[in-house]
Design brief:
Distance between the termini: 39 Å
Strand order of the largest sheet: 2-3-1-4-7
Shape: globular
Mean pLDDT: 91
Number of strands: 7
CATH class of one domain: Alpha Beta
Largest sheet: 5 strands, parallel
Length: 243
C-alpha cells in the first residue's frame, strides 16, 4: 500500500500522531498476552492498556480477515484453507502476526488477544519472536470463578434496536424485561445463555490451562482478580506490567 502523501494529511491528524509518538518515545517496550474466558473483562482493559503503553492490539481473527481482504500472500493461503472448510494453520497465523509487527504502531510492542490457544501455538509464537530478538514479557491471566462469570453473563439483556444493555443484578431495567425508554421487550443474546456459556467455559479451560502452565514455567504469568470492578483491575494490570 502506498504511503499517504503527508501534504494531504490534515494538520490536526499530523499533530495528534506527532504528540502520540513523542509521548510514546520513552515508554518501555512491552509484549503482552491477554488470557481469560468470555466475559472476564479483557475487552474492557485492552484499549486502556493499548493507549497507556502505546502498544498495538492484535486480534488474530480480525487480522486474518484483513489479510484475506488485502489479498496478501499469507491472506491468499488463509483463504484457500477457509474455502476448503479447514482451520488456518498455526504457522500461517504466526506469519500474519509477524507481518503485523512491522507496522510503526507495533514499534513499542503489542497486546495479543485470543492467541495462543494451544501450547504448540505458544511455542511457534516464541520461536518467531526469538528470531526478532524479542520475547513475551507478561501473560495477563484474567482469572475469574465460573460462577461469577455465569452471573455476569447470563444476567445480560439487550434492547435490540438501540443496543441498550441491562443486567438483572447490576443494572436492571425499571420494569423487568422491558426497555426503560421505549417499553419494548428486552432479549437475551443466544451466546449469553447458561448452556452456551458452560460449553464455552469447558472449551476454554481445556484448551487454555496448558498454555498458562507453559508460561508459568517461564515465570511471566500475572493472575489478575478479574471479578473486581474495572478500575481496580486496571490498577492491578498496571502493577503487573511494571513489575
Amino acid at each position: 500500500m502506498a504511503a499517504t502523501n503527508l501534504e494531504d494529511v490534515p494538520s490536526v491528524d499530523l499533530m495528534t500522531e506527532l504528540l502520540r509518538r513523542m509521548k510514546c518515545a520513552n515508554k518501555p517496550d512491552k509484549r503482552l498476552i491477554l488470557v481469560g474466558p468470555p466475559g472476564s473483562g479483557k475487552g474492557t482493559q485492552s484499549p486502556i492498556i493499548k493507549d497507556e503503553y502505546c502498544l498495538c492490539h492484535l486480534a488474530t481473527g480480525d487480522m486474518l480477515r484483513a489479510a484475506v481482504a488485502a489479498k496478501t500472500p499469507l491472506g491468499v493461503k488463509a483463504k484457500e484453507a477457509m474455502d476448503k472448510g479447514e482451520l488456518v494453520s498455526d504457522d500461517l497465523v504466526v506469519g500474519i502476526i509477524d507481518e503485523a509487527l512491522k507496522k510503526p504502531s507495533c514499534q513499542k510492542g503489542f497486546i495479543l488477544d485470543g492467541f495462543p490457544r494451544t501450547v504448540v501455538q505458544a511455542q511457534k509464537l516464541d520461536e518467531m519472536l526469538e528470531k526478532r530478538g524479542a520475547k513475551v514479557d507478561k501473560v495477563l491471566n484474567f482469572a475469574i470463578d465460573d460462577a461469577v462469570l455465569e452471573e455476569r453473563i447470563t444476567g445480560r439483556w439487550i434492547h435490540p434496536s438501540s443496543g441498550r444493555t441491562y443486567h438483572t443484578k447490576f443494572a436492571p431495567p425499571k420494569v423487568p424485561g422491558v426497555d426503560d425508554v421505549t417499553g419494548e421487550p428486552l432479549i437475551q443474546r443466544k451466546d449469553d445463555t447458561a448452556a452456551v456459556l458452560k460449553s464455552r467455559l469447558e472449551a476454554f479451560h481445556r484448551q487454555t490451562e496448558p498454555v498458562i502452565d507453559y508460561y508459568n514455567k517461564k515465570s511471566i504469568v500475572a493472575n489478575l482478580p478479574a471479578e473486581k470492578p474495572p478500575q481496580e483491575v486496571t490498577a492491578e494490570v498496571k502493577k503487573a506490567i511494571s513489575s
